[in-house]
Amino acid sequence: MASAPREVIGDLAATAFVEASPLFRSLDPEARRDLLQLAQRVDLAAGELVSGEADETFLLVLDGGASAQAGGVEIAHLGRGATFGEGRVLGAGRPLALVATTETSAIVFPAPMIAALAERFPKMKKLLEIVQAAREKEAAAKAPS
Greatest CA separation found in the chain? Predict the structure, then answer.
Protein backbone atom coordinates (compact mmCIF):
# COMPACT_ATOMS: atom_id res chain seq x y z
CA MET A 1 0.00 0.00 0.00
CA ALA A 2 1.23 3.49 -0.83
CA SER A 3 2.62 5.50 2.02
CA ALA A 4 1.03 8.81 2.89
CA PRO A 5 2.76 11.57 0.92
CA ARG A 6 5.41 13.40 2.95
CA GLU A 7 7.06 16.72 2.38
CA VAL A 8 10.45 16.65 0.71
CA ILE A 9 11.58 19.78 2.58
CA GLY A 10 13.52 18.51 5.57
CA ASP A 11 14.50 15.25 3.85
CA LEU A 12 18.09 16.09 2.95
CA ALA A 13 18.65 13.09 0.69
CA ALA A 14 15.46 13.70 -1.32
CA THR A 15 16.17 17.44 -1.53
CA ALA A 16 19.71 16.80 -2.80
CA PHE A 17 18.39 14.27 -5.32
CA VAL A 18 15.88 16.78 -6.75
CA GLU A 19 18.50 19.53 -6.90
CA ALA A 20 20.94 17.21 -8.71
CA SER A 21 18.40 16.17 -11.36
CA PRO A 22 19.47 17.37 -14.83
CA LEU A 23 15.90 18.60 -15.34
CA PHE A 24 16.06 21.04 -12.44
CA ARG A 25 19.69 22.20 -12.67
CA SER A 26 18.83 25.21 -14.85
CA LEU A 27 16.40 26.60 -12.26
CA ASP A 28 17.47 29.58 -10.20
CA PRO A 29 17.66 29.10 -6.40
CA GLU A 30 14.28 30.77 -5.80
CA ALA A 31 12.48 28.54 -8.33
CA ARG A 32 14.18 25.45 -6.92
CA ARG A 33 13.07 26.42 -3.39
CA ASP A 34 9.47 26.93 -4.60
CA LEU A 35 9.58 23.55 -6.34
CA LEU A 36 10.84 21.78 -3.23
CA GLN A 37 8.17 23.36 -1.05
CA LEU A 38 5.45 21.67 -3.12
CA ALA A 39 7.26 18.37 -3.66
CA GLN A 40 6.08 15.26 -1.83
CA ARG A 41 7.63 11.82 -1.48
CA VAL A 42 5.56 8.66 -1.84
CA ASP A 43 6.62 5.05 -1.36
CA LEU A 44 4.80 2.27 -3.20
CA ALA A 45 4.76 -1.50 -3.29
CA ALA A 46 5.29 -3.48 -6.49
CA GLY A 47 2.13 -3.53 -8.60
CA GLU A 48 0.71 -0.27 -7.27
CA LEU A 49 -0.47 2.46 -9.60
CA VAL A 50 1.93 5.35 -9.18
CA SER A 51 0.18 7.75 -11.49
CA GLY A 52 -2.98 7.31 -13.54
CA GLU A 53 -4.09 8.95 -16.73
CA ALA A 54 -6.29 11.51 -14.95
CA ASP A 55 -3.64 12.62 -12.43
CA GLU A 56 -2.26 16.13 -12.53
CA THR A 57 1.16 15.14 -11.28
CA PHE A 58 4.72 14.97 -12.52
CA LEU A 59 7.09 12.43 -10.97
CA LEU A 60 10.79 11.90 -10.48
CA VAL A 61 11.70 8.30 -9.60
CA LEU A 62 13.87 8.30 -6.47
CA ASP A 63 14.38 4.55 -6.04
CA GLY A 64 12.97 1.36 -7.50
CA GLY A 65 11.38 0.89 -10.87
CA ALA A 66 8.13 1.50 -12.65
CA SER A 67 6.47 0.69 -15.95
CA ALA A 68 5.11 3.49 -18.15
CA GLN A 69 2.09 2.02 -19.90
CA ALA A 70 -0.22 3.04 -22.72
CA GLY A 71 -3.38 0.96 -22.91
CA GLY A 72 -1.84 -1.64 -20.59
CA VAL A 73 1.24 -2.08 -22.82
CA GLU A 74 4.62 -1.16 -21.35
CA ILE A 75 6.32 1.49 -23.43
CA ALA A 76 9.19 2.23 -21.07
CA HIS A 77 10.72 1.00 -17.84
CA LEU A 78 11.71 3.86 -15.57
CA GLY A 79 14.39 3.69 -12.91
CA ARG A 80 16.19 6.08 -10.59
CA GLY A 81 16.26 9.62 -11.95
CA ALA A 82 13.64 9.05 -14.64
CA THR A 83 10.71 11.42 -14.95
CA PHE A 84 7.07 10.77 -15.78
CA GLY A 85 4.30 13.17 -16.77
CA GLU A 86 5.96 15.17 -19.54
CA GLY A 87 2.80 14.96 -21.64
CA ARG A 88 0.76 16.49 -18.83
CA VAL A 89 3.25 19.31 -18.47
CA LEU A 90 3.53 20.04 -22.18
CA GLY A 91 -0.14 19.46 -22.97
CA ALA A 92 0.64 16.77 -25.52
CA GLY A 93 1.12 13.08 -25.88
CA ARG A 94 -0.99 10.04 -25.29
CA PRO A 95 -2.36 9.23 -21.83
CA LEU A 96 -0.01 7.02 -19.87
CA ALA A 97 -0.16 5.23 -16.55
CA LEU A 98 2.78 4.43 -14.30
CA VAL A 99 2.83 1.19 -12.29
CA ALA A 100 5.52 0.31 -9.74
CA THR A 101 7.38 -2.86 -10.74
CA THR A 102 9.37 -3.01 -7.49
CA GLU A 103 9.19 -1.17 -4.21
CA THR A 104 9.40 2.37 -5.53
CA SER A 105 9.91 5.83 -4.07
CA ALA A 106 9.02 8.88 -6.14
CA ILE A 107 9.05 12.62 -5.72
CA VAL A 108 5.70 14.03 -6.86
CA PHE A 109 5.17 17.58 -8.10
CA PRO A 110 2.02 19.36 -9.30
CA ALA A 111 2.14 19.24 -13.11
CA PRO A 112 0.90 22.86 -13.47
CA MET A 113 3.88 24.07 -11.45
CA ILE A 114 6.31 22.12 -13.63
CA ALA A 115 4.57 23.58 -16.71
CA ALA A 116 4.98 27.12 -15.35
CA LEU A 117 8.65 26.52 -14.60
CA ALA A 118 9.18 25.07 -18.08
CA GLU A 119 7.84 28.30 -19.58
CA ARG A 120 10.27 30.35 -17.48
CA PHE A 121 13.31 28.12 -18.03
CA PRO A 122 13.85 27.16 -21.70
CA LYS A 123 16.50 24.49 -20.93
CA MET A 124 14.03 22.70 -18.70
CA LYS A 125 11.33 22.85 -21.36
CA LYS A 126 13.71 21.51 -24.01
CA LEU A 127 14.63 18.52 -21.81
CA LEU A 128 10.93 17.77 -21.23
CA GLU A 129 10.28 17.94 -24.97
CA ILE A 130 13.14 15.53 -25.68
CA VAL A 131 11.84 12.99 -23.14
CA GLN A 132 8.26 13.39 -24.42
CA ALA A 133 9.34 12.81 -28.04
CA ALA A 134 11.26 9.68 -27.04
CA ARG A 135 8.26 8.31 -25.10
CA GLU A 136 5.95 8.98 -28.04
CA LYS A 137 8.35 7.16 -30.37
CA GLU A 138 8.52 4.18 -27.96
CA ALA A 139 4.74 4.13 -27.59
CA ALA A 140 4.21 4.18 -31.37
CA ALA A 141 6.71 1.35 -31.86
CA LYS A 142 5.06 -0.83 -29.20
CA ALA A 143 1.43 -0.04 -29.96
CA PRO A 144 -0.63 -3.03 -31.13
CA SER A 145 -1.32 -2.92 -34.86
Answer: 48
